[in-house]
Structure formats: C-alpha cells, structure tokens
Amino acid sequence: MTKLDHLRNRDAVLRMSESEAEERAAVVDPDDERMIINMGPQHPSTHGVLRVTLELQGETVLRSKPIIGYLHTGMEKTAEDLTFLQGPTNVTRMDYASPLFNELTFSLAVEALLEIELPDRSTWIRMLMCELNRMSSHLLFLATNGMDLGAVGMMIYGWREREEILRFFEKVTGLRMNHNYIRPGGVAADLHDGWRQDVQSILEILPERLEQFDVLMTGQPIWRQRTQGIGVITTDEALALGATGPILRSTGYAWDLRRDMPYLAYDQVEFDIVVGTYGDTFDRYAIRLNEIRESMRIVEQCVELMPEGPYRVEDRKVTPPPRARIDESMEALIHHFKIFTEGFKVPPGEVYTAVESPRGELGCYLVSDGGAKPQRMHIRAPSFANLQTLPHMMHGGLLADAVAVISSIDPIMGEVDR
Amino acid sequence: MSDSPPPVDDTTETVEKLYDVAVTDSKGQTVLHPCRDSYHDLIQLLVEEGYEVCVDLCGADYLGNATRMLPMTIEPERFELVVNLLDVHAPRRLRIRVQVPESDLVVRTISDVHPSAEAMERETNDMFGVCFEGHPDPTPILLPDGWKGHPLRKDFAMGRIPVQFKAVEGR
Asked: In chain A, how many domains are there?
C-alpha cells in the first residue's frame, strides 16, 4: 500500500471542525507563521457556494478543506416523495449545467428495475441530446475557467456558444435547463421537424469558434504559465480519491464509461477518449476543450444514424396514451389520469446505474419496495467525489493558483450538495 | 430410485458464496452480503482482487419495507450500508450491502483503505446517523453543525422541523 501512504503522509487535508478552526485562528502566536483563512462561500471563483478553509504560510497553501452543504436541499429525501415518473423533475436540478445526464442515469435505473427494452430511436435521441449537453457543459466550463484566470472575454464567448445549444434544447424539450425530457420509458417528445438542420448549424458554427479559443487561450503564454504544472495529481491518487471524468483522464489514464462500460448505443459510434499527460490544470482544460470536438463527432454520427420508430416504449404500463387517443377514448383518458396521478408501480429490487457525465461517473442507486415511489434514491455525484482531490491539488501551491485549481475541478455545487 | 431429484438441502448449503461471503444477483449486478465484523477485511481483500476504486458509499433505511431480498443466512436489520466498488482494469463492478442494526449504529471506517470514502462516510453519518469507527474527520458535511436528527431516516418526516438557522437561539 505504498501509493496510499504517499497520499496520507502528505497532510494536505485540514481535518478539523469549524469551531476548532475558529479557535486556532483566534490564537496569536508570533513564532507560528501559519494562518487559517476562509475563501468563499461568496467568492466569484467558487462556482456558487463552495467555501474552502485554507491554512496558509505566507502565500503558500499548506492544508485545506472544502466546506460544502450550503446548497443542500434534501433532494434525495424529496425523491422518496415523488413517483418514478416525477423523479426526473427532481434529479434534473442537481447538476444544473448538465441536467440531461441526471435524468438519464435516473431513467436507466428505473428501466433496469422495470426490465423494459427501449426502442432504438429513444436511445439515439438520448445519446444525441446528452452529447449536445456535454458540449454545452464544457463550453460553460471554458467560460468560467477563462474568467477565473483573467481571460474575461472568454466568459462572453463561452456563454454565446452555449446559447446556441440551449436554443436547440428549448426547441426540443421546451426548456433551456431542467428539461425533464429523458423519462423512464423513453423521452418526453419526438424531435421536431427540421432538427437535422438545427444540429447541423451548431456543428458548422463550433469548429471555427473552438479554433478561436485555441488562439485566445491554449497557445497563449500567460494562459500556459497560469495553468501548466499547477494542481498536479497522479493516476493512483485520482483513483484512490474516487476522482473520475476529466480529472482522472488528465493523469493519462484512459477511463471513460462510454467506452469501458458502454450504455445507450455508445458501442455503435466512433469517438476517441482524450487523455492528458501531466495531470495539471492545463491538461484538464485541454481535455474538456477537445472533448467538445469528440462530442461533435458523436453528434454527427447520431444525425446520420438516427433510426425511425417510436420515441418511447410501447408498454402501456409506463407510457401514457398518445394525445390524440385521449379525445376519443374514455379509457385512454382514465389511463392518462392514473399514470400521472398514481404513477406506475416498479417491482421490488435495488440497482446501481452509472453514466459518464461531463464531470465523471454519475451514478444512481435506486431501491424500490414495489410501490410507485422509490424507497431510496441516491445520486453518486461526480463533483462530490472530485472535490476530495482539491486539498491534494492545492497543497504546496500558491494562493493565487488555488482559484485555478478550483476552477479546473469544475464543481457544480447543486450536485455536490444535492 | 437413481433419477429422483436430490432432496432439498439445508438452507446454509444453498446460499451461494463468493470470496467466502453470501452473494446474490440483482438485475445482473453482483451483490455481496458480508456481516458487519468481516466487512472491513472484505474491502481490504477486494482491493487485492482488483476492486481498487470505491465509487460510492451510502446508507439505506428499510423501516417498513418487507420486500427486501436477502440470502437466508443474513439477518435483516433496519439500516444498510451500500458500497459500490469498481475494478477499472477488468472492468467490472461489485456492490456490498452490510446490515447495520438500529441499536448499534457503528461500522468500521474504510477510509483507511479507500480515501474516497471519507466524504461519503461523513454524508452517511449526517443522513442516517451511522458512526464510522476510526474515521479521521467525523464532522458534519452537508448538514449544518449542530443539526439534530438524520433526515434520510424513514421516521424523519418531511417539513417536520422548521428550517434551522445558526443565528436562532435554542436550535
């Protein structure tokens, strides 16, 4: 266990309660140059409400501890009070930058318990939407990462490109965020007429814009000096700390659930896994930038290979009747009413499903007792696990680099705190 | 008669075992059911078997749920600790469910084996009140300091307690 000893001996985590930290901060000892300060929760670089307690010696960060929970709203408890059909409305609010992935992992878990097979078209629609969502999420990262490090113009460019994708989402799902589009049994609605042109126009705009980002940031000496060699983490450390997604891949370890444990139809599309070399902030930035390009490849294939057919499962137990039937059939109206008031029953059992979200492994542990509501719903949030790498990345670095490191983890506090 | 079906065995004989622990299959996923005392050693053993990553650790409250399926040798308790392990080399997954009795909510921490479990164990402590023996930092993580009760327990009703603020006296 030598690789873990290294992690332990580093003494990077400030393990003490809040009151203890307050006491320590109050004691003035002229020989002790260490100082405990708080960063956040209202700091612009903390992506919401992350607070980090830092132990500093001069400008150097010694130990630190991320303090979370400011956005805790008991969503796992709420899930126990919602039916399986209502569930996606709840989970979609967790990782609000990539809501479709939350809906997907929850829906996959419900479908695993129901043991239903989905029509091909719904699977491919899910894949198309998720890859577009991955692009919009990474664009948001590029925007905030740029702003955190002083490339303020990037903030506007990143949001502008993301807007193109959100506009498409609005056409398909009716909403720009929190879509409740992917539901147990398929998706809420079929793609609209002319969706191919809409996707094509996004795919046409983006490559040129991504090249502009390369000019603005990737090749720029100031950007490189602020990110290269900052916040380094090794593969063993990342695995031991449960880090997944771009953080694990930045260390050079090619792990992506889409390839290694395929779900949906990812085994039928071609794409490359982007990996880094040094595990530093620059690698994590470059991985996300290039993952947008890989997602575009997948989206292109989705447009090309999109099968025809129903967009949700034909099983009437889980699927409400078509809208047209409700006008002509009393039974269909009753059926519709019952599905949306009582929900459908899910056989007892427990299951864990995982998908590769833009931040890493997003899992859903679902327990059903045979009723219409889950008995326990737990979301394995990638940001929650990834935040544990923060003290190790910041240890020994400068305070100014702490901002770069926090930004490169790309935490979404909504899913950290749930 | 030679072709008669074999007599139904003793219950202990029919329980399938993997790594010397009762194993079940849940929708194609392998689930191990160790007892609480052997849980830590099993996690340690599984690291050597390749399950190097602890992706998830959470609790579950089975109060009022009579539909749970467990191997016959396992005594059902109110609380369960659920650990999801991942072998990134194979790749394969394994789930571990440990029964934790309500009267003695103490489990040995696995954060010495999997540092990733540290925050997850703190969360489970917040939500279910399960104590992790030997945990390096047993402080609240998602709930505010001094919060009373464990929200994800089944007998913790929604909206039962008004929202607690630090400035309010007698919280």
From this structure: 1
CB burial of B46-58 (b: ≥16 within 10 Å; e: otherwise) equals bbeebbbbbbbbb
DSSP characters over A176-229: SSS---EETTEESSPPPTTHHHHHHHHHHHHHHHHHHHIIIIIT-HHHHHHHTT
Q: Residue A242: which of B27, B54, B82 has the nearest Cβ?
A: B54
Mean pLDDT computed over A161-185: 91
Residue A141 lies in a domain: yes
| Interface pTM, i.e. ipTM | 0.86
Structure token pair of residue A286: 């470059």
Instruction: Tally C-beta pairs within 8 A across A and B.
Output: 122
CB pair distance less than 8 Å for B145 and A18 = yes
Q: Does B121 touch chain A (CB under 8 A)?
A: no
Please check whether residue A418 lies inside any domain of the structure: no
Residue A1 lies in a domain: no
Cβ separation A112–B27 shorter than 8 A: yes
Q: Domains along chain B?
A: 11-120 (3.30.460.80)
- Average the pLDDT over A96-117 and give the result: 92
Q: Which domain holds residue A261?
A: 75-383
Residue A246 has pLDDT above 90, yes or no: yes
The pTM assigned to this predicted structure is 0.90
Are the Cβ atoms of A74 and B151 closer than 8 angstroms?
Answer: yes
Tell me the pLDDT tens digit for each residue of A6-38.
777 777 888 887 778 778 777 777 777 788 888
Which candidate, A304, A258, A268, places its Cα nearest to that of A131? A258
